[in-house]
Amino acid sequence: MSTPPPSNKAILARYGLIAVPVVLLAASMAYVHGWLDPHRVTPARIVDNLQANGGLHAGYRRNHAKGICVSGWFESNGELAQDSKAAVFAPGRTPVVGRFALPGGNPYAPDNSVPIRSLALRFTQADGQQWRTGMNSMPVFPVGTPEAFFESLQAGRPDPATGKPNPAAQQAFFASHPETGAFLAWVKTAKPSASYASERYDSLNAFYLVAADGRRQAVRWAVIPESAAVSANGAEGADYLAQDLQQRLTAGPLRWALRMTFANPDDPVDDASKPWPQDRRTVEAGTLVLDRAVAQIDGQCRDVNYDPTILPSGIEISADPLLPARSAAYADSYLRRTGEVDALHTAQEHRP
């Protein structure tokens, strides 16, 4: 017999943690752009909320707290050199420091607690310019306006009796926001992998490639795995994703193709909740190669703020309001966690 599809309540409960990044972006956007009362909604207060929900874990990110550092390089094939003057797209190799992670503020959460995986990358060009990007293993974001983000914050508020979001409140939120339809359609068929290595990661936000002659083209990007998907069914242990990654790397480097998708003139470039049609022009720009993984406490990624607005000449942000919001929220979290590490070191130095 075939397995019946999950109910809407089951889906919403399972994906409740997806509200975490939505909450973070929502309030920071509202504050930075003045759409809501800054005395009610600020990035600092939202980070406070994430900290309260996930617990205070000094020195860790307030979202995507559980992760592992990776490093390697990007081997460009030169196919995008005519579309962007960024040196990262010229033929050759660019070093990369990255981080695989899970949504949520608890660095000790079991890997099966949330189905979304993320990949953040920092490309460092020979001229010192950097391209930083944070991607997720879903093709579209739930909503695209600060007002909707704020409402999702209310819907995702933990119930004091259970410590979890109220499924009825979340269901009401999705019912009142038809723009979430594309996301919910994906949720119903999503099958998270038991391996970071076999996931596809999407930028979700749109950016512009800028050519040497000044020509600008809107794009979204994704990295497509060379490794075959592995079902999460039967995966054992709280940390199976990191264990699987380390085991795979003992057999050799892992690879993803960097695929750039170009928008048509009428495609939305300022709303991450709206997917683009499948027939848009795509270019395979080269290969992401990761050959080393290190626990984040010891790895290079630990002290990197993967702010997606840090871009080299040749890539520019779009008018998507989530981008400046992410930048502001990441900065708040970064200052907190690095300050906590400094305070810990100072305390240790002054011990008798």
What do you see in this structure?
It is a single chain. This protein is of the alpha+beta class and 352 residues long. The protein has one domain (8-349): Catalase HpII,  Chain A, domain 1 (Beta Barrel), CATH 2.40.180. 29% of the residues lie in helices and 22% in strands. It contains 8 helices and 10 strands. The protein has helices at 8-14, 19-33, 43-54, 146-155, 167-175, 181-189, 240-250, 322-349; strands at residues 67-76, 92-101, 118-124, 130-136, 201-202, 207-210, 216-225, 254-262, 282-295, 315-317. Strands 1, 2, 3, 4, 5, 6, 7, 8, 9 and 10 form a 10-stranded antiparallel β-sheet that branches. Strand 6 (207-210) and strand 7 form a beta hairpin. Helix 2 (19-33) runs antiparallel to helix 3 (43-54). The chain is globular. The protein starts with 7 loop residues before the first helix and ends with a helix.
